[in-house]
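User: Can you fold this complex?
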Amino acid sequence: MSRAVEINDLKISIPQRREDEKELLRGVNLQLQSGESLALVGESGSGKSITARSILGMFPRGAKVSGSVKVDGTEIVGASSRELRRVRRSGVAMIFQDPRAHINPVRTVGHFLTETLIVSSGWSRKDAEECAAQLLRDVGIPNAKERLNQYPHQLSGGLLQRVMIAGALADEPAILLADEPTTALDVTTQEEVMAILMEMRQEKGLAMLFITHDLELAAATCDHTAVMYKGRVLEVNTSKELHDSPEHPYTVQLLAARPSVAERRHRLPVVDMSEEQLP
Amino acid sequence: MTAVVAAPNNPVAIFGRFSPVVVVSVLIIVVFTTAAILAPWIATHNPNEPDLLNTQSAPTGTNWLGTDNLGRDLFSRMVHGARSTIFGPVLVITVATTLGVSIAMVAAWCGGIVDQIIARFIDVMFSVPTIIVALIVVMLTGAGLTGVVIGLSIAYVPYYARLIRSAAMKERSLPYVDALWLEGRSGLWIVCRHIIPNISPLILTQSIASLGLAIIDITALSFLGLGVQSPDSDWGVMVRNGIDGLLSGRPYESLFAGLAIVLFAGSVNVLGNHLSRRFEV
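Assistant: Here's the predicted assembly.
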């Protein structure tokens, strides 16, 4: 199996004027094999999204970056903007948490889906529209033709997230980065969207980096799970192993902190890590 | 209960319902503009032909608005003068909008030091009054419509650049721009195809609001004798030319030209106000 994404000792920090620099990532190592799905879990601010964006070469403004990110053998850190555009266009697609914010609100769904095809792949408008309608059908949206003429505000959150998935699949990527794609949705639509995402992934054999807060969801949908905390990857294991016998004390605490119906508690345990426990 | 929803591409949906005042304003704008375009066919006399036996006449059947101090027909001079008075400001606004929007987009997209330099430059330009900038350019090019148009175009740039820059920066910070960027679109594509269209209501509104000002400025410069030169006419030139008549009890030339300026600039401002309310900018 070849490595679709390989992140080695990635460090990102933002220099501050008076204090020490703010470290966002403190040496992240992560591998994603092609065709494999990897869940990235961790609390807010642990660096999950920044890691995902690094794969596409989007670092915070003014950040100091060191280490290496390789996508299909192409080095991303320090790549020219032309090379970055090529990777973004052809190899990797990203799905965001809030589809309403991440789709231009004043353009139609059809425009959103066809733009990629027309600009990146040089399709004719007619072919692109045909393909866009097919993409919508693939992600389970009925009346695809009519939907193309609708605006994002006319669609529900779940539908719009499917549109975004369709858009991500339009340029036939090999790697899919899903940044909390279901966090903004209610539970039933969450399930539908996950089902479609899994189906698409299997059908097209995509490698997927799936960012989530939800440990159960990570275990249920991904082969491997990586746990991040304060800009470090603490533990990577197969989802089942990680779930059943976590190695790192943080993972143990994180698993213990989940609410459960079986065991009602007045207060959930708080995750409390001292610096010594971190690598 | 049935609600009537206008189709998205219907003019009412885009520009809103016109109140009677706005309708009248639009009519005035349309009539004046058509008259300017069709001036050679509408004019009853040659606008530059003197008739020294019939000077300073009051409105009559042949000279609808009377004649000036050289006996030239005021109506014909008005419609011919409408050309530079209307199209001069339109040209000024077109050039200023193009320049201003370009500068604003460069500042908003590049950010950092580029933005800082552009922002300071705009501040400096703001500190020089419009008319002064125009005067300096006219001084270099010599009196005439060309100099006035170039001068005012430059002078109007900061008004656009400042406003559009802040709107573009807000738009640029929206997540969908990041998403497009991560899809591999170029910066130029995102700016031209997404950011500019999305703030176009603001650009349009600002253009029309500034058009009202540009009309006043251009006629003011003509009034000062820096714009359109004799024997050609312009409403500002006519107000100036009519001053002698005004003092000797024959106010027609200044009156009609002044009235035309007020009506036209006023109408443009009413329309501008309506659009800014409609687009909530």
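Strands of chain A lie at 3-14, 22-33, 37-42, 64-71, 74-75, 92-95, 175-179, 207-212, 224-229, 232-238. Chain A touches chain B through 27 residues (CB under 8 Å).
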